[in-house]
Hints:
The chain contains 14 helices and 21 strands. It is an alpha/beta fold. Helix 9 (about 220-225) runs parallel beside helix 10 and helix 13 (about 315-330) runs parallel beside helix 14 (about 355-380). Strands 2-1-3-4-5-6 form a six-stranded parallel sheet, with helices on both faces. The chain has a five-stranded mixed β-barrel with strand order 17-18-19-21-20. The chain folds into three domains: about 10-130, 3-Layer(aba) Sandwich (Rossmann fold), CATH 3.40.50.12160; about 135-380, pyruvate-formate lyase- activating enzyme; about 385-440, CATH 2.40.50.140. Helix content is about 35%, strand content about 25%.
Amino acid sequence: xxxxxxxxxxxxxxxxxxxxxxxxxxxxxxxxxxxxxxxxxxxxxxxxxxxxxxxxxxxxxxxxxxxxxxxxxxxxxxxxxxxxxxxxxxxxxxxxxxxxxxxxxxxxxxxxxxxxxxxxxxxxxxxxxxxxxxxxxxxxxxxxxxxxxxxxxxxxxxxxxxxxxxxxxxxxxxxxxxxxxxxxxxxxxxxxxxxxxxxxxxxxxxxxxxxxxxxxxxxxxxxxxxxxxxxxxxxxxxxxxxxxxxxxxxxxxxxxxxxxxxxxxxxxxxxxxxxxxxxxxxxxxxxxxxxxxxxxxxxxxxxxxxxxxxxxxxxxxxxxxxxxxxxxxxxxxxxxxxxxxxxxxxxxxxxxxxxxxxxxxxxxxxxxxxxxxxxxxxxxxxxxxxxxxxxxxxxxxxxxxxxxxxxxxxxxxxxxxxxxxxxxxxxxxxxxxxxxxxxxxxxxx
Length: 445
């Protein structure tokens, strides 16, 4: 039997950092309506599945999760809401295929979640996949949750139309949030104890707007304004497009001390032929040139990237070009995936689909090289002194985990440090995925 009077909720977010941000905002919406977050071991009365549509079989995984939720032995069934990009892509088909789903809400309409919950309480199948231009931000409550590091969405949507990607269809066209709204939300976060803010966007470096004096600004100007915010210690941004690495942003890496030395800049392939087929609108040369400009401004910057192997028509020569690019750039971190066709995208109907076994082999070779580079980057920090932001407790008693300026996880013994502190440490050891350090002194708050 359905629980039509939910008192507790759980939001489960999958995929990108923007989904994490959206999940946090939906949780704040529900808390503002009087619902309480369910404990980790407690079954929630309302479960929101905040979905991602980028990876293969995303929709099938959502339906599997729905089935698990609706077959809890000896318990009443929760209200189930499907949110995010799968909700946008599938719409009303979701409750038709899975009648136990009560709510479907797209990523541009989740500010209407409380009203959809009220409708679901009455037994209605509540579906909202409208895509108004960012009106959701005006309807969201003030930031409620306290965390040392927080995400802040400044830009949504994509106009690039890469042939493999569903984002333009699920998130809409590129839209930038207003300058004043971003600064107001940033100040609210800092007032609640946030020390580090990561600016988010599908193409975050495409952000532009007018400042309080009516001057046109790019992301670099916005970062400069955040730099002046008392109490904010660190600024990051993700994810960027190579074509939008403008001079104001490059200068910010040289001039703004609070801007961390980390750049996530997806390339996807090292072959110009494949980049053209992907409609990436940049070349290998222009990509490398963009990285060189940022490295010239900030020599200690760590570079991260995204790669797709096995795009339709990719030859061994094309793949070897990707390996050559990886060797030339030398990544500190990277994400790599096998190509998976997304329904409705141009690439899904392209000829010369690469066999699965070939993709598997290429992915293993690429990831082997990327792991070597990441481990070498981490080991190069051993013996160095740096400052970390403590974000959470570790698995071991008395252990804390924080982030270095280069987005590495650092484990340390707590001592007098606490979550939210900026702590100077010496790096003692490095593995492929994390570092260990010893506190030297407690930094001034």
